[in-house]
Specification:
The protein is of the alpha/beta class and 435 residues long. The chain is built from 16 helices and 16 strands. The strands form 2 sheets. An 8-stranded mixed sheet has the order 3-4-5-2-6-7-1-8, with helices on both faces. Strands 9, 10, 11, 12, 13, 14, 15 and 16 form an 8-stranded mixed sheet that branches. Strand 9 and strand 10 form a beta hairpin. Helix 12 crosses helix 13.
Length: 435
């Protein structure tokens, strides 16, 4: 026999209009305005039992951020000795999403329990003495030394240095009698996600975008259903499915993992591969840094791609990437207008040669020689580049593309850069413009 539904559970499942009407009719609405138990869905309740980690892997809009933030808030308000690590892909995301976002810790706090945020110290302090500190997964060594009783790791599937950052975070959880951590993410088949799924003392919560339909705009849900229903991207980003390799894909996750190595040797040269966007709306500008190591291998150093930028905007991003890696050349595809590309880069004041390359074959045909270099162990990824790797795994052996976005902009930029440093004269015809 099913247990009777509580008022909180009934409200959690009710349409938003009904919940708002009930709230307005309540005699003391201020008492429950910040009471998460009245607003959460049953699937958002923390698991019971003796667990060390809670892994929330669900589609976008499911409510992952709110769930984790409310868990942190509950810990902080009930334990003045709590020391909490808040870790995101970058410090900017830790601040704008985990702390200041619509579902962040400052937004959900009741006025009398609102923590004080000190951005310069990366610190949140609650009135009872509990403290949370912000960290970036891109700087895993910043997690060496501190100690914590609890942690929240956000969007772990997109972290650079994911395994190293997680290991360092895990080792800081040595305060209190039962340290715990919550990890949230939209699924991607990366090593850290697979590792957490296999952890025996982690509890998994899964869900979809549709689960939170009462709190999402109908127009948004309709658009998502119309555009992405049945696609791989929709299954991953909306349905929260963990998808393995696409059958017939040129690259596989396993191949990329075999090529991952952060022991970069001295570099003989560095180039920046650029795939300019066809328009300023929707398309990304692929910007990938690749070095030629003293070992004769290619090393993928960084993904500096940008989306939705004007020509001046993406050109500045190319310039910044070139300066960051002290590149000696920019390799830019010129099929979208060689003169425009050259003029745009010249306007960004890039003081190094630009090699304009013209694609005479399809993307997959151009990628096949580069793929062969991966298979022979002559290309390495010096870190994790989730967006780039998703695109590589969407290139199909028979032609075509089944990855995220409309076009594999990052993958294209990588192919141009690796071709330049490894295949040299075997590359397609090109001209060099010195800016």
């Amino acid at each position: 026999m099913t247990a009777p539904q509580s008022e909180a559970e009934r409200l959690a499942l009710a349409p938003s209009a009904e919940r708002e009407a009930w709230f307005k009719a309540c005699k003391h609405p201020e008492r429950i305005a910040h009471d998460w138990a009245y607003w959460r869905r049953p699937s958002q309740v923390p698991p019971e039992g003796d667990w060390r980690g809670w892994f929330i892997m669900a589609g976008r809009g499911f409510g992952k951020t709110r769930m984790a933030a409310e868990w942190v808030r509950d810990v902080a308000e009930n334990d003045g000795a709590a020391r909490i690590a808040l870790v995101a892909a970058t410090l900017h995301e830790a601040r704008t999403i985990m702390v200041e976002g619509e579902s962040g810790l400052l937004s959900i706090a009741p006025p009398d329990q609102r923590p004080t945020f000190e951005p310069s110290l990366r610190r949140l302090s609650w009135p009872n003495g509990a403290i949370a500190t912000l960290y970036s997964a891109a700087e895993p060594d910043s997690l060496r030394g501190p100690q914590h009783s609890h942690g929240w790791a956000d969007e772990i599937a997109k972290w650079d240095n994911a395994v190293k950052a997680w290991n360092n975070l895990d080792m800081t959880l040595r305060l209190g009698h039962a340290p715990r951590i919550v990890a949230t993410t939209t699924p991607r088949p990366v090593p850290l996600v697979r590792r957490l799924l296999a952890e025996p003392d982690f509890v998994l919560t899964r869900g979809t975008t549709q689960d939170n339909r009462a709190n999402l705009p109908t127009a948004f849900l309709s658009a998502m259903q119309r555009v992405y229903a049945g696609t791989r991207l929709g299954r991953q980003e909306l349905a929260g499915e963990l998808l393995d390799d696409v059958e017939g894909a040129l690259w596989t996750r396993a191949l990329i993992e075999q090529c991952r190595d952060d022991a970069v040797p001295p570099l003989a040269r560095v180039v920046i591969g650029v795939d300019p966007p066809a328009s300023a709306t929707g398309d990304a500008c692929g910007i990938i840094a690749v070095g030629l190591g003293s070992d004769g291998h290619a090393w993928v150093l960084g993904d500096h791609s940008v989306r939705g930028k004007s020509p001046e905007g993406w050109a500045r991003a190319v310039s910044a990437a070139a300066a960051r890696w002290q590149a000696d050349r920019v390799i830019a595809e010129a099929n979208q207008g060689g003169d425009m590309v050259a003029a745009t880069l010249r306007a960004a004041d890039i003081a190094l040669p630009v090699k304009l390359v013209h694609a005479s074959r399809g993307k997959v045909a151009r990628a096949e020689p580069v793929h062969a270099l991966y298979e022979s162990g002559r290309v390495h990824h010096a870190g994790a580049f989730p967006d780039l790797e998703d695109e590589l795994c969407g290139l199909m052996t028979g032609g075509g593309y089944e990855g995220p976005g409309r076009s594999p902009d990052r993958a294209d930029a990588l192919v141009w850069a690796v071709t330049e440093v490894m295949l040299g004269r075997k590359a397609s015809s090109a001209k060099i413009t010195r800016l």
